[in-house]
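Table S2 (text version). Query chain:
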Amino acid sequence: MAYGTVIAALLLALAAAGIAALAWGSVKIPPADVFRILTGQAEDPSPYRTIVLDVRLPRVLLGAAVGAGLAVVGTTLQALVRNPLADPFLLGISSGASAAAVSVIVLGVGAGLATTVTIPAASFVGAFLALLLVYTLAREPGGGFTTSRLLLAGVAVSYVLAALTSLILVVSARADHLKEVLYWTLGGLGSARWDTLALPLIVLAIGTGVLLALARPLDLLLVGEEGATVLGLNTARFRAGVFALASLVTGVLVAQSGAIGFVGLMVPHAARMLVGAAHRTLLPVAALTGAVFLVLADLAARTVAAPQDIPVGVLTALTGGPFFLWLLRRDRSRQEEAA
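Corresponding structure-token output:
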């Protein structure tokens, strides 16, 4: 498919998913009424205005931002480590951000600014330190990576951070922290509000713009460490800078949504099937695909067991787990064929 056709189709899909997410839920609203409310043509006062504008629209926008951001970060990490199994969740980045955010909540650090400043800042630090630890543990003496080392390091760090989060909760001995900690563990979009949307949207826009500007160096990494170095890329410095940027984007998003897994694993593969591996075209497609996927996943989470609101991270794990196992099996088959 032509690149312009793919972008147009994804934009239409995102618009349709957004309208569906605004219309469906525990209270069903006719799509025509949703359209009139969004365009200011609804009668005043409209019985559905508060539901659409104050409850569902911030949630849809946050879902689109988180889905796009995790997909872009996943695409970038897979290029940086040259491994199709790389993902913010599997590599411990989301767990690091969640552990840091939970620590801020429980300890009450910067209580007055926790939602807008302290939690995102702590999440960034936690995400970066977790990624740095995984990178250090997985790196071989020659400087490369293997699938087994990367996965083992990511899983080990994630388990340690999960245990640390549980320890903090137990030590705090406050029942009112349980719900908040569970939210960070499972991931969800129920806390979306207009006053907390600005930061993730700004960080997503800046982060994606910077990564688009770095599309050529990301492409160079696909040819291998030695090839990229010969072509003039300082791979160590470049990786360090992009790792920091990926941690920033992930930390800010996790601060708002909790740890939502497997989006950054699945979406890049779907995007490559549409437009190939060149990052200048791949990153926008991955962002739009991730946005559509998470908006639809959150819609399913709100409607499958309505009026019960299932954490969207549960649904992404249910779909991402089998996909991850399929990738492992495919990778093993390729290694056997190469041998």
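Notes on Table S2: The radius of gyration is 20 Å. Residues 328 and 334 are 10 Å apart (CA to CA).
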